[in-house]
Design a protein that fits this description.
disordered N terminus; 235 residues
Length: 235
């Protein structure tokens, strides 16, 4: 019966294909993942569902969320939650804006576009948190491999994270960042900035994954995945 259905669909000019994985970590020999802005482990779950069984290091600055995430990943022996901190351009102390939708909390101040996107989002408080550059973290705590995948989701603070990673950035095979067509936070950079930045350091745009749209249907935010051209001998 399945063969008959497939043949009928083919005659109509269509074809059946499996749903594309978020990212094929195994095909690219990824063995180490850095998860900057882990929130409640959404990316961890996505990575595991995609078949990745290697080591994950996660970073989350919100105090309550950090405690919750620690409980959520306790059974994943290869997932490590770094002590609570934010990742940025340099080591310092910062104020984190906590929003009712905690996945939107950021060191940057939200603007009216964010609140217009979702009327349920409210600022509910602030927290002080330590900030460390990713270069400092790598140099002092972890050893990255040539098959490392870096994911950054810091609600408009992605540029700052990259500014604090200039020493080691060329060692990473894939880097995923969050970008948008317009700003939701003060001092946030548009997607064009990241396209040009990665081009200037010899990375190529590998994939675009839309995930947020406004009420009129316009695309607002999406993930951009870049690949280091040094590794292009194994596409």
């Amino acid at each position: 019966m399945k063969k008959i259905i497939k043949k009928l669909i083919s005659l109509l000019g269509y074809k059946i294909s499996k749903k594309k994985k978020f990212f094929d970590f195994n095909a690219h020999s990824i063995d180490f993942v850095l998860d900057v802005g882990a929130h409640k482990g959404q990316f961890i779950n996505k990575v595991r569902e995609a078949g990745f069984i290697g080591k994950i290091i996660s970073f989350e600055p919100q105090e309550d969320i950090h405690k919750e995430l620690e409980k959520l990943i306790k059974d994943d022996a290869k997932c490590t939650l770094h002590p609570r901190c934010a990742i940025g351009e340099k080591n310092k102390l910062e104020t984190l804006n906590i929003l009712s939708e905690t996945q939107c909390s950021s060191i940057l101040n939200p603007n009216k576009e964010l609140f217009n996107l979702d009327k349920n989002i409210k600022k509910i408080g602030t927290e002080e948190c330590e900030v460390f550059s990713l270069d400092y973290i790598i140099d002092n705590y972890y050893t990255i491999t040539e098959n490392t995948y870096l994911k950054i989701d810091t609600q408009g603070y992605d540029k700052n994270v990259l500014d604090g990673f200039k020493k080691n950035i060329k060692k990473i095979k894939f880097i995923q960042i969050e970008a948008g067509l317009y700003k939701l936070y003060e001092n946030e950079e548009h997607y064009e900035y990241f396209i040009n930045l990665f081009k200037s350091i010899d990375y190529e745009l590998w994939d675009i994954k839309p995930f947020a749209f406004n009420k009129s249907g316009r695309l607002v935010q999406f993930d951009l995945i870049f690949k280091n051209k040094i590794f292009n001998n194994n596409i």
